[in-house]
Amino acid sequence: MPGHRIAKFDIHLVASPVPGNFADSTRKVETIGLLVLRVTTDQGLEGIGITYHEVGGEATRELIRHDIAPRLIGRDPFETDALWHELFHYLRGVGRKGLTFCALSAVDIALWDLKGKILGMPLHRLLGGNRTRVPVYASGGWTSYDDDQLVDEMKGMVARGFRHIKFKVGVDGGRDTRRDAIRVRKVRDAVGPEIHLLVDANNCFDAARAVQLANEIRECRITLFEEPVFADDIPGLARFRRGTDIPLGTGEHEYTKFGVRDLLLAEAADFVQADGARAGGYTEMLKIAALTQAFNVAFAPHAMENIHLPLAAALPNVPFLERLLMFEPVTALVFRDAPVPVDGYMHVNDRPGLGLELNLDFVRAADARGG
Ligand SMILES: [Mg+2]
Q1: CA–centroid distance, residue 259 to ligand 1 (Å)
Q2: Using one digit for the tens of pLDDT, what is the confidence trace for 193-209?
Q3: Ligand 1 center–CA 168 separation, angstroms
Q4: Which of 8, 42, 175, 223 has its CA 20 to 30 A from that of 192?
Q5: What letter does residue 6 receive in the DSSP assignment?
Q6: Cα 61 → chain centroid
Q7: pTM above 0.90, yes or no
Q8: C-alpha to C-alpha distance for 241 and 235, rounded to whole angstroms
Q9: Which CATH number does the domain housing residue 105 bear?
Q10: Ligand 1 centroid to 226 CA: how many Å?
Q11: What is the 328 CA–ligand 1 centroid distance (Å)?
């Protein structure tokens, strides 16, 4: 088989306004931005890479177009590890987190998609998996909802077949934990004892108040308490973990194996939630996965369930993926036939690579409208 060489990069921005009132404890969400990358080989195969943002999409696109793409033209897409390290050292002076890594992640994902397509092999097989389905939780329940809206959305998730559901705590910016405790109890009463409840504080508490809330809602049998304190407050995360037996999730704001190493050494996570579309693509997620296995904690990648599904199918310590209901409309437009959950599970397919097909008409039109 003559080797494919990387020949072309096409980068599209898709902005999807979020109408209505969607806020968590620390911010209001107004737009979902996706960066859709197409890397084409000299033999015409195309790999798809994805990253996402609320701000900074144009900067990420420019970093790929101006700085990363020229270094990769003519290169072998199978050299994912070598190319990752080359790019890491090329870019390290301007960022080992943030937009730089969003760019690197999208590129790495596209190269892995290409490897699967060149081999005619689904990525979940190439990554070594044999699971055909992975549990997925529905994620929403914004703090901007009143109690009835919150309970209605959670009941709707259960009616759709989800057995794990996640909602926000930290109403009024985290100033009223008594209200949070009431809301958690209302959800538990509404969905019954069998459903797994996950709560997400989006960085809003200090450790003492987070522990106080955790102990107040302990009777509601919480599967995971996410980001109780500021993501960089690793001592605070560790203090939270010592103060409650509710398992701690964190890591959606972490990048690379180095960031996850620090969380694990500090005993500051029970579920590591690094996100492959930001943290460094599949190449880095495999290394993060190895770290979580070495420390015997769960790996539960944040959001982007269609990107994480092949990886999750290959990793025994991924208990579930996350499906943000807010992303469902734009995901359905960007991809043709992207997998949808059935009875609370995402099922892998047998198409090569990621198994995703872009709806290029939509993607191009959205990009032309200005992202
Ligand atoms: Mg979160």
Answers
A1: 17
A2: 999 999 999 999 999 99
A3: 8
A4: 175
A5: E
A6: 19
A7: yes
A8: 10
A9: 3.30.390.10
A10: 6
A11: 16
